[in-house]
Amino acid sequence: MQKVDGIRHAESEAYCYTGTTKKEEEMNMKLRKLTAVLLAGAMTLSLAACGGAESSDTAKDSKAADSTAVKTKVLTPGTDAANTETSDETLTVGLASEPSTLYAVAAGKTENEEQIIGGTLVDTLVSVDYSTNEVLPNLATEWEWIDDTHCRFKLRDDVTMTDGTLLEAEDVVYDCNELWVGLNATNDIGKYLVGATAEDEHTVVIEFNTAAPDFLIMLSWSSCGIVTEDEINAAGGIEGVQTNPMIGCGKYKFKEWKNGQSITVERNDNYWNKDYAGYYKTIVFTFTSDAAAREMAVESGDADVAYDMPVSQAATYAESDAVNTAIYSFGQEIHLWYNMGDNAGSTKEQKVREAIDKALDFDAIAQVGTAGFAGAADSYWDSGCTFYASAYTSEERAVDVEGAKALLEEAGYADGLEITALGLQDITPVLTVMQANLAEAGIKLTIDTPDTAQFVEGAFGGDYDLICIGDTPNVRIPANVMPFLQKLNVEGPGMVIGGPKWTTDEIDTTIQNMVSESDADKVAEYAAELDKIVKEQTICSNLYSEMKASVLAKDLKGFNVRERGFIDVTQLYK
Amino acid sequence: MAKMHTPAMEKIEKRNAKRKKPVKSTPAYESWKRFKRNPTALLGLAVVCILILIAIFAPLIAPYGYQTQDYSAMMQAPSSAHFFGTDQFGRDIFSRVIYGARYSLIIALFCTIAAFFSGGLLGIIAGYCGGIVDTLIMRVMDIFQSIPMIMMAMCIVAVLGNGIPQLVAAIMFASMPTMARNNRAAILRVRGSDYIESSEAIGVNQVQMIIKHMIPNAVGVMIIYFVGFLAVSIMMMSSMSYIGVGLAAPTPEWGLILNDGKAYLTSAPYMMLFPAMMIMITCFAFNLMGDGLRDAFDPRLK
Amino acid sequence: MFKYIIKRILYLIPILFGVTIIIFALKTFTPGDPARQILGNSASEEQVQEKREELGLNDPVVTQYFHYIKDIVTKGDFGDSYRTGKPVLQEILPRLATSAKITLGAVIMGALIGVLLGIISALKKYTVVDSGVLVVSMFFQSVPEFVIALVLIMVFAVNLHILPANGIDTWQGYIMPMLCIGLASVASYTRITRSSMLEVLGEDYIRTARAKGQSEKNITQHHALRNAMIPVAQSVGTSLGNSIGGGMVLETVFGVPGVGKYIVDAITQRNYPSVLGGALIIAMVLTIINLLVDISFVMIDPRLKTTIISGGAKKTPRKQKSLKAA
Hints:
The complex is a heterotrimer.
Chain A lengths: L1 H11 L9 H45 L23 E6 L8 H4 L4 H10 L4 E4 L4 E4 L2 E6 L4 E6 L13 H15 L9 E8 L2 E6 L6 H4 L10 H6 L2 H4 L11 E7 L3 E6 L14 E6 L3 H9 L5 E2 L4 H5 L7 E16 L11 H10 L2 H9 L23 H4 L3 H10 L6 E6 L5 H13 L2 E6 L3 H10 L4 E6 L15 H5 L13 H12 L3 H18 L2 E14 L21
Parallel strand pairs in A: 1-10, 1-11, 13-14, 13-15
Antiparallel strand pairs in A: 2-3, 4-5, 5-7, 6-7, 8-9, 9-10, 11-16, 12-15, 12-16
Helix pairs in contact in A: 11-14, 12-15, 18-19
Chain B lengths: L6 H12 L8 H10 L2 H18 L1 H4 L31 H37 L1 H15 L3 H12 L3 H29 L1 H8 L4 H38 L10 H8 L8 H28 L5
Helix pairs in contact in B: 2-12, 3-5, 3-12, 5-6, 5-8, 5-10, 5-12, 6-8, 7-8, 8-10, 10-11, 10-12, 11-12
Chain C lengths: L1 H28 L4 H6 L5 H11 L5 H15 L12 H36 L4 H15 L2 H15 L15 H27 L2 H8 L4 H28 L4 H7 L4 H10 L3 H29 L4 H5 L7 H9 L1
Helix pairs in contact in C: 1-13, 5-6, 5-8, 5-10, 5-13, 6-8, 7-8, 7-11, 8-10, 9-10, 10-13, 11-12, 12-13
């Protein structure tokens, strides 16, 4: 751009031109020769500089390349003791983007950034120990299932909300009926709820529309935070509360939202649970979408946490002495789905799917997808699930190009096959590996990575042969357990993006059984059954446990995670 | 022009033919003479020639395929086996950068040609025809120019999707107004120059004037823009790769390689360094050449 | 002159119409349903249709266009952002101010460095210094801006700890983005300054001043510099307008809430009210800045009147005619 501009301006100066003399012409020549020499010098210098960089890097990197096995020098959630001190310091958390609202429940949607920030403001009926998936009392001291779909909660009587009032059963009824069901009927919160009724001032019964014991875990998500109607009205109603969320009884209170720059929350000194001590008086969330810049802010001391780093990028700091790196799985496994629906192409044939499965190098895929922090998956279920059991032998997971070619020939694609994989930008590296793998077997894979809107449209319409999508079945609610193979989702009205666009009654019933079962052994049985079906028909290829990564300041302790792998910033301390 | 054939004339012609240098002075020849005397411009030209050769003979130069992945050699620092190191797939960065010359230069060339044939042509038409045609074209270009270049390019990619032709179209649309303006100005300057005006006044044949004077004079300036725009389009491609629109993996376009390497800025700087250097050297060369061409074609502009 | 200003302001109207038409045309052909973007991935087809109806996306494009224009003209309403539900204008204006601040600083910084280098190379013409300046200024023009940005963060924030890595909470946060945009334009300013200085130094009045025995320093400072700055100042004006909306890459790296990044995000989210509003406001600002720049130059230096008012074309009779016709 600049170049072209320069020419244009230069042109307009010509009006006051005077000619160059002979002497100047000669001088001009001399100048140019000098410039040429200088330029050549600069280029050699920069080349030499690279040469210097090479030699110093060699030693370090060959060492890194050796340790291809699972790496360990990263933080694991929940290893530090809880904080006991308080201070007046400020914690700065660098997020990738700015949330569109600070109370997504009021907008009828869910949003990652909102959940990270909103989770500090609201508290939930129950909490969960994410290392064991055990449900713990929180705002509710105890609960019991009346039947499969009704659960009775006893509330604490000493919980103060932001407006100074005490929490009552009627408030939970309002949240459930007006907010979760009323405004969020389409998403995971409202989809499974029927409503709530108050039995007395501190007892409330919540009704679900299907049976699933893990619904209790769902109630610990920050989108099920407890607020009161008065608070919402005081904050400006459903519209106003989204920018001014003075609500909840959480560990922190909303303070300020500087549009485009930062969001500040302040420690709630009236927090009901006196066992909790928040180290930081204020937490500031800032927004930088460039991951490298976000990390460098931590390294320079401007920020304490660089949230949501690409795993491959975070992995490069695993050995760093300047920062701590957290790389962890959160119960989500990525699967490669084959389109088997109405507008499916060659992947409708099982032989083709098997051939692709045989040709893929799952170890390489896992290596690239998790930067070496997890191996190839050997079950549909993530290894973090309680009902996980290995379903594949290592021979079955090995690369078998000849076998793949033979299958393709049987299916009538001896001359080659062309397929497309649809994905978002961040999955491109994994698809790049697949592309090379499949090329060995004579399959030409085209990688289609459009922008989010186009991806969603394509993934909805089944406009792909292959698609990589994950699910988090460790919480057994209907939305999480094999959503892509549920009748409701495949045939409508509930639609999901991606998946095979195909299912059978048998699969659907088994999924329903697995969701509603409370006996752990039975659950494991259903899980194994589903795993077998998926494997026998090659409905999908299991890739790897998805990893989340963040970079934290060196002196930061108390690293813990919440639902879906969000960092619990309220637990951090120095 | 018919030549006279008298014995005397033939004698003179023979004598002229014996002379080492024919006395010839076309604007192009004069420009070449000026260009030749300019070492920085020649250096630019030499680098560009080398780059073109690299692009043509990429398969012979590159020791590995640009797509060949090797999981036993991931993220290796530069060594004798991998001159520029390897990336997270174990692909040889040197080979990718060499093939990248092919992709980047060709895409840049296509973008420039496309921009010339759309915006450039419109500018020439506007400048030459003048009057209502000029007004109409330039007002439309004003509208296009009010939309920032990258935003325009992104909108086009959102409509057309990713891919090389789509990227070329996007950059073409985005740069149309600038191209039109520059070319129109070039034509107008030639039109407005004194010798054209005086030729017009003394009634020189229009066609002859266009061929003999206007085109050679305007083409010089247009070549300057052409070369300058090659650098601009390479820079634009890298910006678009950064935002994540334009080309899909594993195309070894420099901007994409650079963007892939960005993740490893601190741990493996060579992944970013080499593609960045190629972009720099190429743009440097084009800019130097452009500077030299400007001096050569238009000594008044310096 | 007054007539000229009025005419230029009236020009704004067809330009703005043109911009809306282009964006609306692109919007029609762009795949990706905004309604689905708003509702999220688990919404059913029915709900998406309902939302489309609510947003008026099922109306014919012409009707949509008409409504959009009507709201702007009658109510000054650019619509509400699909993402946040807030009025577009309210979201854009603070971002525009941020971008404007950075652009202004960058142009000043770039021009200062460029002019300084240009003067040095003009005074030390045909020496090592001169060619050194050329190489340095061209370097920043030839490296992708985000590479320079990341290197700057690495040096000034991570290693030296003197500037914040990102964000614009403090005034120091503005320095690196300004420097980055500024450095990229140094080359063109250097070139313009150098050639313009050389030209001015060869003018008659400079020779006269020399003959009168004035010191070289005095000549440079009082005579040459002032006149040589006119083309530089002109190009400062133009780049000011051009780079306001074009900073999305650097705004992304430095975490700056600018208007460029706002529009890029809006495009990927299919947030059409924001795209349209952003494009319109940028077009307006661009045109107005260009007009102000042109007017101020005519005021400062009446010699430029012909050049500017006839749109850069010099003494082309046809051009003059066409302007009258327009």
